[in-house]
Amino acid sequence: MPYRFRNCNVHAWMVVAATISCFTLAGGAWAQEQRVVFVQVLDQQGQPVTDLAPEEFQVAEDRVPGRVVSARIGTDPMRVALLVDNGEAMRAGQAVNPMRDAVAGFIETLPPQHLVSLFTIGGQTRQVVDFTTDRGELVEEARGLFTDQTDGVRFVDSIRETLERRYDEDEMWPVFVALITDSGEASAFLNERRYRRFVESLRARGAIVHVVQWNSARRLKDSFDATFADGGRGATGERFAPAGRRSLVDSDAGGRGTSATHTIALNLTEVTGGRYVSVAAATGMVGTMTQLAADMGAHYNAVSTHYKLTYEQPDPPGQRVMMRVTRPAVTLRLYRDRAIVAAATSGRTQSSDDLAFTVASLEPSAPEHREMSFRVWPGGSCNVRNHSLTRLISEAYELEVQQVLGGPDWIDDDRFDVVATFEPDSYAATDESRVRRMLQRLLRERFALRVSAGRLGPVDVLVVTHAERPRAH
Q1: DSSP 222-247
Q2: pLDDT at position 385 over 80
Q3: 177, β-bridge pairs
Q4: What radius of gyration do the chain's Cα atoms show?
Q5: Regarding predicted confidence, which is higher, 357 or 80?
Q6: Are residues 273 and 357 in the same domain?
Q7: Domain C-terminal end among 248, 283, 301
Q8: Shared-domain flag, residues 136 and 249
Q9: Same domain, 398 and 435
Q10: pLDDT at position 169, please?
């Protein structure tokens, strides 16, 4: 079962699967791989420990030591590249004024210590204002943004070029906030090999990508029915897109009316720990961007005491990462990224709850079974019959089926039965939420399920970013 990095509390040695982001530094005839993780260290009172030196961290892979390169606390201010799609779609949709108001609202709401640089990315990438804390200058330029008559947005190119040219290699807080339309992706840079390297570089640098997308003319279900690269896990050596499905860099992302821009936006926010929000009305951009800025400020306050730790892998790299600090009486929490979690997800992200069924069987439904049922019985049993994975997810997260989007075709077609037992004390007749969390865990374990929460206009949605057909249990 895949290991998750969120809220992983371990005293002394911490052991996790080696699926952390990595990058390669070439030098002559050899290359040294490095990995980046984020670590919070707490004392016995639960307070952050912020004075650790790099030499106090110890890292190993499969018990072979690696060398810690740096361990820096994240109290530097954020450097936010604000990327605005000012292409033809904004003008055609009469959304220029909401676009300007949304950008200005974001700038005015983001706490003042954080630097912002303003870019337009419709047709070509153009820096309007360099990184500054001068909110007056930024707002003035935002109010004067105009549209480009080019149809298409240079979404990936703008992030890649800005990361390479505008951020230092050791930047603590490279953050991208993109306000885009549903125009097609126009980046000249884009192909599968380059995109894979691009995702590696984002994760290796600890970058975060947030996206607010105005989907002016897209149907709810079709807009999400596309395949994400590597199930939202970045470059792990697996195939880039499942057989029989187009990769996310195809020009129309599967031929169902969805632009690659939309699919890439979902992928990048997932793999970097960012947030994706889709708005159906142009006026919705204003409130969404303002709320994002407020949440980013609060999120920074919550995670700025985390260490960004870079280390050199042993040769050959291992499959399990072990980490500890030499200082006594502390607790480690290890994170893959700086994921932002806020009210927009309505609490429907994957739970870290330890609740689990005592015994659970999940099998394909018999072909002759037509009736669907989901029953939880007082006394400690749960029986589910003839449910697709999509419907199981909707039950587990208390959503309508139409709110579960994305994933491979089989999650709608294959049917499964679940028979599970649990301790009677863990169920109250008036509260089934504990049983639903047990089902969430079962789906993660049996289907290797990964989901990402978001919104389409006023509607909460849950996007399936990875799922695998289960083995029989």
Answers
A1: GGG-SPPGGGGT--SSS-SS-TTS--
A2: yes
A3: 82, 210
A4: 23
A5: 80
A6: no
A7: 301
A8: yes
A9: yes
A10: 84
Structural tokens at position 6: 């969120």
pLDDT tens profile 440-467: 989 988 898 988 877 665 567 788 888 8
Q: Is residue 455 part of a domain?
A: no
DSSP H or E stretch at residue 73: strand 64-73
Number of domains composing the chain: 3
Give the DSSP letter of residue 43. -
Whole-angstrom distance, CA of residue 210 vs CA of residue 300: 14
Inside any domain, residue 100? yes
Mean per-residue pLDDT for 407-426? 82
Residues 41 and 131 occupy one common structural domain: no
Residue 254 shares a structural domain with residue 321: no
Asked if residue 458 belongs to a domain, the reply is no
For residues 274 and 196, membership in a common domain is answered with: yes
In this structure, of 29-43, 62-76, 334-348, 381-395, the range with the lowest mean pLDDT score is 334-348
234: Cα within 13 Å, side-chain hemisphere: 22
Condensed to tens digits (0 to 9), the pLDDT of residues 148-185 reads 877 778 899 999 999 999 999 888 889 999 999 888 88
What is the rounded (10 degree) CA torsion for 371, 377, 383, 384?
50
The CA distances from residue 224 to 126, 132, 461, in Å, are 29, 36, 10
Q: Single out the residue of 316, 320, 332, 336 nearest to residue 61, CA to CA.
A: 320
Structure tokens at 60: 């190993």
Q: Please, which pLDDT band fits residue 113 given cuts at 50, 70 and 90? A: very high
DSSP 124-188: S-EEEEEEE--HHHHHHHHHT----S--SB-HHHHHHHHHHHHS-TT-S-EEEEEEEESPPB--T
Show the tokens assigned to 3. 């290991």
Residues 31 and 176 in one domain: no
DSSP secondary structure, 249-312, as one string? TSTTTTTSS--HHHHHHHHHHHHHT--EEEESSTTHHHHHHHHHHHHHHHHHHHHTTSEEEEEE
Q: Are residues 245 and 231 both part of a single domain?
A: yes
Q: What tokens does 9 get?
A: 């509390």
Residues 6+ apart with CB under 8 A from 115: 77, 78, 79, 80, 131, 132, 133
Domain assignment of residue 60, given as a range: 8-75+305-335
Q: Per-residue b/e over 161-196, b at no fewer than 16 CB within 10 Å?
A: bbbeebbeeebbbbbbbbbbbbbbbbbeebeeeebb
CA distances from 117 to 124, 148, 269 (A): 16, 19, 20
Question: 470 in a domain, yes or no?
Answer: no
Q: Taking a C-beta distance cutoff of 8 angstroms, is the pair 229, 284 a contact?
A: no
Which tokens sit at 98? 């909401």
Q: How many angstroms separate the CA atoms of 14 and 334, rounded?
A: 8
CA angle 6, 173, 165 (to 5 degrees): 130
